[in-house]
């Protein structure tokens, strides 16, 4: 059975973070990186300041890079591709660009070179950085997610799909369950060897962008990213999340793990602001919800986004990101065509002004 280690770190002070990372690595099966090329994949959903808890904190990214260097890696790549990326990746506000420069890691723009992967009959472009890397490490952020309940180490690898090319994939997988299986397929292609999760300051409420920071005081790591994500879900207080449910259906026992340090069931935060857990579709009935959603009929209770026009600043990021072309600007107001909306919540995820409500 794999091992998942949870260590305390009450702040992003580098000495505390390094100590917790070392405790995690010493308690689990960290890959042999000596002489190898290592890809470190943080969550850079947008180039946001660390205190917003949207991105993996730069102190955690730094500690992971330092660890990999100390273990003898010959080359270290660091990269991501935000959903609304314009221009070359340059995560300055998040502090990750500075960390890469100061540690000698190479900052990689995932849009610069891609290769098509066939995943379940769907052609998906992914960065060739995973082809260049011998070892891949996911460095995720502890956050809620409006569509998937929580976002973690497995979903973090969705960032391997460049920029706006992520959005159309929601049309191929319209329910949380089918999207979970797509994410699992991408994760498998990425050959991830290890996962860390920054849970020192997490996000609760309307994640992964517009929620509120929540101090958790933990770092999580292990060789099994599914088990890392299960620990996250248990600490948040979820009984069920789509990605882990689908992973268990496809690979029974995949989320099981030993916990050599702290146990997640002892760390559950009862008042964590979670995404309401909706009705789960079964494999037998997935076809009908998918079909009905194409003509605008809800079958699973998921709400449509609503737009708070007093907060909107007319940036139109929501309009541009919408894979179903369900949004348009009319007289400086965003209007939604429910008959087209697939409730993927990409608009909510990309809104920088918290002007979209999902409730």
Outline of the structure:
The chain is 26% helix and 23% strand.
Task: List unreliable stretches of 5+ residues.
Answer: 279-286
Rg over CA atoms: 19 Å
Which structural class fits the helix and strand makeup? Answer: alpha/beta
The proportion of strand residues reads: 15-25%
Number of helices: 11
Spell the H/E element sequence: EHEHEHEEEHEEHHEEHHHEHEEHE
Shape assignment: globular
Q: Number of DSSP strands? A: 14
Helix content: 25-40%
Average pLDDT for all residues = 92
Report how far the terminal alpha carbons are from each other.
39 Å
Tell me the major beta sheet: 8 strands, mixed
Keywords:
single chain, 359 residues, alpha/beta, eight-stranded mixed sheet, two-stranded antiparallel ribbon, 11 helices, 23% strand
Characterize the structure shown.
By secondary structure, this protein is an alpha/beta fold. Helices cover 26% and strands 23% of the residues. The chain has helices at 14-26, 58-70, 96-103, 129-132, 169-172, 176-189, 225-236, 242-250, 287-293, 317-321, 346-350; strands spanning 4-8, 37-42, 75-80, 106-109, 114-119, 122-127, 135-145, 149-151, 194-204, 212-222, 306-307, 327-330, 333-336, 356-357. Helix 6 packs across helix 8 (242-250). The longest helix is centred in the middle third of the chain and has 14 residues, at 176-189. Mean pLDDT is 92; it is low at 279-286.
Task: Outline the secondary-structure elements.
Blueprint: E1 4-8, H1 14-26, E2 37-42, H2 58-70, E3 75-80, H3 96-103, E4 106-109, E5 114-119, E6 122-127, H4 129-132, E7 135-145, E8 149-151, H5 169-172, H6 176-189, E9 194-204, E10 212-222, H7 225-236, H8 242-250, H9 287-293, E11 306-307, H10 317-321, E12 327-330, E13 333-336, H11 346-350, E14 356-357
Parallel strand pairs: 2-3, 2-7, 3-4, 7-9
Antiparallel strand pairs: 1-10, 5-6, 7-8, 9-10, 11-14, 12-13
Helix pairs in contact: 1-2, 2-3, 6-8
């Amino acid at each position: 059975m794999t091992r998942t280690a949870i260590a305390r770190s009450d702040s992003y002070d580098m000495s505390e973070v390094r100590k917790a990372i070392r405790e995690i690595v010493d308690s689990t099966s960290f890959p042999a990186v000596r002489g190898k090329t290592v890809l470190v994949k943080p969550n850079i959903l947008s180039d946001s300041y660390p205190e917003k808890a949207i991105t993996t904190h730069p102190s955690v990214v730094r500690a992971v890079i330092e660890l990999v260097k100390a273990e003898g890696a010959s080359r270290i790549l660091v990269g991501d591709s935000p959903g609304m990326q314009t221009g070359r990746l340059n995560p300055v506000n998040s502090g990750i660009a500075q960390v890469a420069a100061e540690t000698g890691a190479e900052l990689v723009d995932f849009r610069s070179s891609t290769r098509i992967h066939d995943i379940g009959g769907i052609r998906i472009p992914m960065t060739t950085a995973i082809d260049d890397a011998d070892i891949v490490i996911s460095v995720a952020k502890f956050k809620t997610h409006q569509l998937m309940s929580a976002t973690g180490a497995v979903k973090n690898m969705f960032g391997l799909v460049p920029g706006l090319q992520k959005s159309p994939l929601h049309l191929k997988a319209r329910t949380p369950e089918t999207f979970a299986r797509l994410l699992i397929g991408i994760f498998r292609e990425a050959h991830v060897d290890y996962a860390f999760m920054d849970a020192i300051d997490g996000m609760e409420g309307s994640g992964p962008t517009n929620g509120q920071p929540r101090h958790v005081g933990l770092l999580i790591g292990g060789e099994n990213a599914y088990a890392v994500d299960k620990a996250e879900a248990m600490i948040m207080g979820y009984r069920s999340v789509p990605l882990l449910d689908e992973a268990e259906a496809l690979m029974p026992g995949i989320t099981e793990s030993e916990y050599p340090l702290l146990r997640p069931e002892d760390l559950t935060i009862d008042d964590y602001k979670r995404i309401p857990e909706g009705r789960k579709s079964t494999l037998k009935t997935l076809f009908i919800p998918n079909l009905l959603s194409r003509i605008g009929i809800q079958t699973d209770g998921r709400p449509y986004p609503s737009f708070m026009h007093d907060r909107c600043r007319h940036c139109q990021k929501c309009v541009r990101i919408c894979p179903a072309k369900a949004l348009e600007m009319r007289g400086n107001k965003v209007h939604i065509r429910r008959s087209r909306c697939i409730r993927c919540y990409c608009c909510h995820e990309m809104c920088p002004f918290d002007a979209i409500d999902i409730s």
